[in-house]
Give the backbone structure.
Amino acid sequence: MKSQTPDRSFISLNMQADIIAVLRYFQLFSWPLTLREMIRFYPAPVAEEAMRETLQHLVLAGTVYGCEGYYQLDQKDNQQIAWRRDCEARATRLWPTARRMARIIGSFPFVRSVLISGSLSKNAMAPTSDIDFFIITHPGRLWIARTLLILFKRVFLFNSHRYFCVNYFIDTDHLAIREHNRFTATEMVTLCPLDGLHWYDALQKANEWAWKMLPNFPPHAVKTASVRPDGLLKRLLEKSLSGSVGEWLDQQWMQMSLRFWKRKFRDLSDETFRRVVRCSRHEAKLHPMQYQKRVLEALKTDTGWMR
């Protein structure tokens, strides 16, 4: 009878290939990884010692470059570590602003939860990066919440995206994200809940696929967080817009936004427009830079990426 002991050399080769794939993904953003991050973004359960030993092997083989506790593929680019530290320092300075903005967003009618997405959720802020917010709303009132927030940004923030980029909305009845790939999994597991924390657990359960793709990434421990009571103005506005008037207004503002985007992006093909814009009663998404598409294509073609 043949032994059932697994071929450890084969497992080691697979692990080396997966490690290189993880580093290649983050190399697109000029972002070297620590040992802890290598484990978190590794696509299968892994022990710290196994990760450490395999990384050391790859470093000795010249496949991976290790320096000052960071790992990357491009051994010639010694500026990536300095770039990362600069981005981390900037992110640390911007977290208090993000928390203040999250509290403001959470005070608006029909907003149920506010989470940080994008660069800041990875504790990385380039000089040109915005603070991106992922917002969960009450069902059937997503467009009221979004339109009021956009008006606030235009009037009080002079339409600046720098600290108030509200580009992704879903409602509490549609928490599952449609796209299941490496990019969306990374974005999902790194979301940082700041307001309406009790909805984070439901969001996680609705997107378990992301943690299956990245099983070592721990969800944020907010299950026992207390619920912050809504202010009087928010309660009054929600009550006044809870009936047919609110239903009509939400539909009108959705159609108004869709007409605006069709004019703004009239040069795009129908297929590209559908990818850039998501416009339904339960989802609003506007990503004209098409980061997801560009990242996934870069991984397929092995092309570079711009900071």
Summary: DSSP finds 13 helices and eight strands in the chain. The mean pLDDT is 90. The chain has two domains: 8-77, 93-301.
